[in-house]
Write a structure and sequence with these properties.
Length: 78
């Protein structure tokens, strides 16, 4: 099992932003077909995106992306 670091989360989020997914709504509407079109997206980054989508669904705060990125647990075991 590998650890997902905050740096890896930001890298995946950067790739989403570069591909035009710039807010919670667009990330939530993203499908696997959309992810496959993002150049250089790794399996781990796809897992991170799925975690981001889950976090947005579960989150009650104003900014679920920030809450996911800066969660108390520094690293998420994957």
């Amino acid at each position: 099992m590998s650890k997902i670091t905050r740096k890896q989360k930001f890298k995946a989020l950067d790739k989403l932003f570069d591909a035009g997914f710039k807010d919670d709504k667009s990330i939530m509407n993203m499908r696997l077909k959309d992810m496959s079109k993002i150049d250089g997206l790794t399996k781990q980054e796809m897992d991170i995106i799925a975690e981001i989508q889950d976090a947005v669904i579960k989150c009650k705060s104003i900014n679920p992306l920030l809450e996911y990125l800066y969660a108390d647990d520094e690293e998420v075991e994957k």
